Each structure stands twice: as structure tokens, then as C-alpha cells.
Amino acid sequence: MSTLPRIAIVGAGPGGLTLARLLHVKQFPCTVFEREPHRDSRSQGGSLDLHAETGQLALREAGLFEEFKAIARSEGEDMVVADKNGKEYFKQVDAESNDRPEVDRIQLRNVLLDSLPAEAVQWGTSVRSVQRTKNSQIEIQSEGPNGLHCDIFDLVVGADGAWSRVRPILTDTKPHYSTISALDLRIREVDSRHAEVGRMVGRGSYLALSHQKCLIAQRNGDNSIRVYAMFQCTEDWLANTGVDFSDEAQAKGLLSHEFEAFAPSLQDLFLDADPDITARPMYMFPTDHTWKHAAGVTLLGDAAHLMTPFAGEGVNLAMMDALDISNAVAKAATEGGLDEAILAYEEKMFERSHKSMEETWHNLGLFFMEDSPKSFVGFFEEMMARFGGPPE
Question: Is the pLDDT of residue 59 over 70?
Fold first, then answer.
């Protein structure tokens, strides 16, 4: 290409910011649209495990691996899997592999943001529409602090998650309900306020599975524990309970009823939680989701291949997508053919993501089988025997 392409990234999550950083390193300017008003406007969720062959590789290429090591927690790979009585079926502590350390999502986001020019992210800017112009360029209509704007780009990358504003220009497919809903809870200052819970969860993750329900507790790096109470239920079940989830007593009352067969020490995972509780139905794409390629626009991460968290692949795939897109842009700059390069990225991404989506769907079934955790642990140990480490 004789001139630098005008590139827009919609969404300042890990995938979008990784792409922005990789493009910056390769000296391709880009604009990131983010509807959040500023970087600290909301909680960024819990902890992520970054895999050596995907998420960590992208950070190496982005020149941020040392920054990553400074915030990574190898002890976060510790894991206990138990049943409703707290009987342990699997326990892994002091793992030696260190291939998939945990990192708090907010810390990873800050590393990526700090590596970008201050003007790279347009905070408080919502994308209203993405349309194709008569000369085949892509127009973004956005609304931000300075009002409405229309901008033309040669490449628009939708990194804006499950309900992407970019995706409709490529496909009419919408996420469908996964059969799983969750309540998202948090226990702050856990070691001083709830030491018994802290000791039970340990340094990594604690999973209690029974009766097609599960409690997943995950240690974060800020002395908090994130708890996910999950149910296999209909899409409207949480809404139809009549519970106001902003009311702590109502939310915890529902959880006490649903998990009444679980040991009191396990019920403490939600009874000791702070008042901010969020209901989250989980959505996904069909495991063979694709779209017909169209010039000037593509997707990465959840916008492209939304899946549930039961394989730990989501953020890793998003960051690998970002690496592949940045390489496609760089290749086109020297050889020409941006459209062909993005098409090649999509073909590679579809193959990679379909494998992970199938794995995730399979793992979801294991979590919520009648005999869990036995079936889940059996599969887990089989994978360890075959590949030398636990699937995540």
C-alpha cells in the first residue's frame, strides 16, 4: 500500500487494545472507539489465565512481556475441584509448568493502555452505526463528548464483544443462550475479613460441582475473591424469579435456596460476598460460526467467536486474533492486498476458534452432568495424562 491505511478498532477490551499496541509497534496509527467514559469507570472483571502459545505470544510481539511477568501470578494455576460436601476430587498446587499464569483483567488492561499514546483511545464515544460507502470504504457514525461524528476508514475491526455494533455489517447471526446463567459476586479484603474462605480457596481457583450447579471461586491479585454461582436453566429463569439482584438480601436468599444442599462452608462463598451482585445469562455462537468475507471490516474476540468460559480460551483467542490482524496489515503494507490479507486472517481464525468453541461446549456439559464432579475430573485427568497439563 502506498499510504498508511486508516484503521479503526471498536472496543477497548484486551483484544482491541492488544491490536492497537501491535499496530503502534509496527508504526500503523489507529483510532480506538470506547463507550466507557474513562479507563477507571467500571470494574473490569476477574482474573485471566494467559497461555504461552497465544495470549503470552501476543504480548511478546507487542514488546510487553516483561510488564506481563511483573503482574502475572503463577500460583493462580492452583486448583481444587470438590463436590457439594467439600470432598476434594482433584487438587493441584505448586504447579511446575507455569505456562498459564493468572493475571487480573484490570492490570492487563492498564499495561496495554499505558503502552499507547494518550490520544489513541476515544473515551466516552459510542459507535452508532457502521456502514459501507459507495466507494466501498467503511463509515463509522459515533457520538462522543464533542457530539456526533462521521469518519471514513479503510479497515474497521470490531472488538466490541457479544453485542457488537460492527458485526451486523457482516452477518445477521446473533448470540444464542448457552443454557447457563450465573450470579457474579466478589469478596473484598478476604484474608482479613473472611479468613476461612480465603484458606479454602487458596491461591488459585476452587470449584464445587453438584446437582447441575456449580460454585467457582477465583483468587484475584488485589486480596479479593471472585465467585460465580452458576445454574443450568432457561434463559428467562433469573428474570422470572422475581428477585431484585440489587437487593443483597433477596439475591443471597435465592442462592441459599438453590444451594441448600451444599455444605455451609461452600455457602459462605456467597453469604460472605459484598453487596454488589450481578446476574449474567451466558451467551455463545454456534461452534461453526462464520461469515462471508467483506472488504474493509472484520472482527476479533467475542465479537467473532463468543463462547462460555469453560475452556479459558476467550481472551487468549482475542489476543491471538489481534496478532494475526496486525501481521496482515503489515504484510499488506509491503506486498499490497489488504483485503486478501484480512481474508487469510479470517480463514485462519475460523479454524482456530472452532476447535476452542467445540472444546468449550464439551466442557460445559461436563461441568453440569448429574455425576459431576466425577465426570469432569475424569476428563481433566485424562487430558493431563495425554498432554502433560490441565486444560483451561
Answer: yes
